[in-house]
From TrEMBL:
Residues covered by region (Disordered): 1-23
GO molecular function terms noted in the UniProt entry: acyltransferase activity, transferring groups other than amino-acyl groups
Protein name: GNAT family N-acetyltransferase
Keyword Transcription regulation: no
Record-annotated N-acetyltransferase domain positions: 16-191
Keyword line: Acyltransferase, Transferase
A Pfam family of this chain: Acetyltransf_1
Bias kind Low complexity: ranges: 14-23
PROSITE patterns, sorted: GNAT (PS51186)
Coiled-coil regions, chain positions: none
Alphabetized InterPro entries for the sequence: Acyl_CoA_acyltransferase (IPR016181), Bact_Acetyltransf (IPR050832), GNAT_dom (IPR000182)
């Protein structure tokens, strides 16, 4: 993955940016994931998943994803505020759902996750991460982005919808070890103007 330049905050200050993740960011990424899931997904994920969270194992997995991605099309970005990791996004080629033959508009990049720690929300970090993934996907030749969201996650759904995304009709159900988790797929076309 080629380095990208920081994306300044919407207010014009240089306190916020997005850059490719480094191995040293992995503990912070795991912390953001744990805090965000425990805050935003307490009613969606089984308590055992949240309460038995192994932050050390998650940090190791994120370090590997940042330093040795499975393909050149995979990547992890971090959002920073005053050099503190406050959010992250992971992306790569999509895993096609059963019966999905790909999109007729061309190659797709899947946003595997985009999380901003709730106390850092509403400062533009999610928008900067989304824009950076769109720029990288477009540069790699992708024609569209897609993302799976839990059906109950209305906050994230409103966020991506405000950025021009729409549901594409695909739904999947995941086994969580508790009640099944139903997810809806969202997508956005990439063009010269952005997603």
């Amino acid at each position: 993955m080629q380095p990208i330049s920081p994306f300044p905050r919407a207010t014009g200050t240089a306190d916020a940016s997005v850059r490719p993740a480094r191995a040293a960011d992995a503990p912070a990424i795991a912390r953001v994931q744990a805090v965000t899931w425990r805050t935003a997904y307490r009613s969606v994920l089984p308590a055992a998943v949240l309460d038995d969270w192994d932050e050390g194992a998650a940090a190791q997995a994120w370090a590997a994803a940042a330093t040795a991605p499975p393909t050149p099309a995979h990547g992890v970005l971090v959002a920073l505020e005053k050099e503190v990791v406050v959010g992250f996004a992971a992306y790569g080629p999509p895993e096609l759902a059963a019966g999905d033959t790909g999109h007729p508009d061309g190659p797709t990049t899947e946003l595997a996750t985009l999380l901003v720690e709730p106390r850092w929300g509403r400062r533009g970090h999610g928008s900067r991460l989304l824009a950076a993934v769109a720029d990288l996907a477009r540069a790699s030749g992708a024609a569209r982005l897609q993302l799976w969201l839990p059906e109950q996650d209305t906050v994230s759904a409103r966020f991506v919808e405000s950025a021009g995304w729409a549901r594409d009709g695909w739904v999947r159900t995941l086994d969580t070890g508790g009640p099944p988790l139903r997810e809806v797929r969202w997508h956005a076309a990439l063009d010269e103007e952005g997603a």
